[in-house]
Amino acid sequence: MTLTERPYAHLGEQIDHLMHALALAKGWRMKRATQEVFDRAGYDGSTIYRWRQGRLRPPDETLEVLARLGNEHAGLDRFWGTNLLKAARYPDIEHLLDEIWGAKEIRSILNNLPALERTVFVGRQRELARLLELLSPDHAAHLISVDGIGGVGKTTLVLEAAFNFMDEAITEYRRLGAYGHY
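RE: above sequence
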């Protein structure tokens, strides 16, 4: 069988995976799993066979049914759902994935910084700007010393710089789409 005879080969693999996962999760034989898909999707066994072979693409409504079946009854994860829908060139993948598996969780960047005791940093903007400049990739400072007598705000200044960098990192993290369950 050539590629032109199996234009949806990867989709067929995902549907076949669904069938096997469904049979395994329910303790069924493949014939019973096929019957379950037939009942839920409303197609006969020969059509489902062509889907599994990668020769035919289910309609969008049926893909939604298959994705829900994979999640709710076969215990398949969001990664499988993504592969299924991408292979089928489903038009709104993220929306359907969020609807079925829930919204992606944005991972927080772990840190051990103490909680801030204030809401606004006041009075040391020039020193903060200089510290951020020294910490930037444009400078090769391996060690930066912040000194002064007790109580002038050395710790507050350094914490402000740390939170500033963390906020920038989170913004970049979200911009790049580096979030979710993987």
